[in-house]
Amino acid sequence: MISLVLSARALRAFADGFVAVLLPAYLLALGHGQFEVGLLSTATLFGSALATLAVGRWGHRFALRRLLLGAAVLMAATGLGFASLTSLWPLLVVAFMGPLNPSGGDVSVFLPLEHSILATSGTAHARTSLFARYSFIGSVFGAFGALAVAVPDWLAANAGWQIVDALRMMFVVYAAIGAVVWLLYLRIPPPRIEEARPAAPLDASRAIVVRLAGLFSIDAFAGGLVINALLALWLFERFGMSLTAAGAFFFWTGLFSAVSQLAAAPLARRIGLINTMVFTHIPANLCLIAAAFAPSFELALGLLLVRSLLSQMDVPTRSAYVMSVVTPAERPAAASFTAVPRSLASAAGPTIAGAWFAAGAMAAPLVACGVLKIAYDLALFAAFRRVHPKAG
Predict the structure, then answer these.
(1) In the CATH hierarchy, which top-level class contains the domain 2-384?
(2) Which of 219, 239, 257, 261 is deepest in the core (most CB within 10 A)?
(3) Are 380 and 314 in contact (CB under 8 A)?
C-alpha cells in the first residue's frame, strides 16, 4: 500500500513540477497579464483549501480510497479543462474546482488523505523517515517535471508548433497523468484503507492542533507570495529568463530540496523535530530576502539554490510532528485541519504578489515572504520547543 501511495506521489509531483512553471507562460501566451496569473493561482489554492476542509469535516463518512479516486478524476478533468479553455473566468472555475498545484510543495486535497495512510503505516520512530521518503520522492520527481517545461520550446523550434499549442499539449499530459494516478489508487485494497482510516474528530489534542494550524497559516501565507509559478514569473520579468532555462533552474532547486528532505530525518533524530524546522528555515529565508536585491542574475540564482538546500527540511518534520503530538484516532482530522488553514492562507498570497508585480514592486513579494517566514520560525520555536512527540 505504501508503494502505491509513493508511486502516485511521484507521478503527481512530476505533473506539478511542469505545471507550476508552465502556468504563467501559458496564461501570458493566452493574452492574460501578471495580475491574472496571481488571481488564477489564488483560485487554485483557495479551491484546494475548501476541498481539504470538506475532507476534514465529512471525509470520515467515506473510505480514503474512494476520496483519492475522486481527487484523481478531478486532476484529469482539470488538465483537459485548461487545455480546452482560453477565457479567464472559465479557467478560474476549473482552477477552483480542481487540484492544480502552482506551488513548489503539495497543497492539494491529496496531501491529508495520503498522510493519513502513511501515519498508520509505521512506528513513531520510523514515521519521520517515512514522511521524508514521501517528501523526497515528491521533490525529485517535481524536479524532473520542471525539466519537461523545455518540451514546448523544442516543439516550437523543431516541429513547427505554435508555442500556445505546445503549452496546451502539456495540460493534456497532466490529464493523462491524473488517469494513471487513478489506476494506482484503484489497486489500494479497500479493507486496508478502512483500517487506516480512524474516523474521529479532534478531541484531546484540539488545542495543540489549533495553535499549530494558526502558526502554519502564517508560514503558508508567506509561501503563497513566492510559489513556483510566481517565482518563475519573477525570473521571466526581471532577468528575461527563457522557459527552458527556467525548467533547468527548477530542476536543480527540486533536486536540492529533495536532498534536504532526505537529510531531515537523521538531523531530526539528532537535534529534534522543532529544532530542525526552525534552524534550517531561518537561513533559507535570509537567502530569499538577499536574492530580491541581488545585482546580478547569477547571484540571484545562487542565493535561490542555497535557499532550496535548506527551505524544505521542515516539510517532512512538520508532517511527522503533527502526527506525533496527537492521538492515533485524531490523525486524519489533524492532517486535514492543519492543512486547511495553510491552504486558505496561501491562497491570498498569489493575488497580492501579482498586484505587486503589476505595480512594478518586483522585490516586495520575496522580501515579505522571507520576513514573515522568519517571524513564523521564531514563534514556532517559542511556543513548541518543549512540546515533545508522543510515543506510538
Answers:
(1) mainly alpha
(2) 257
(3) no
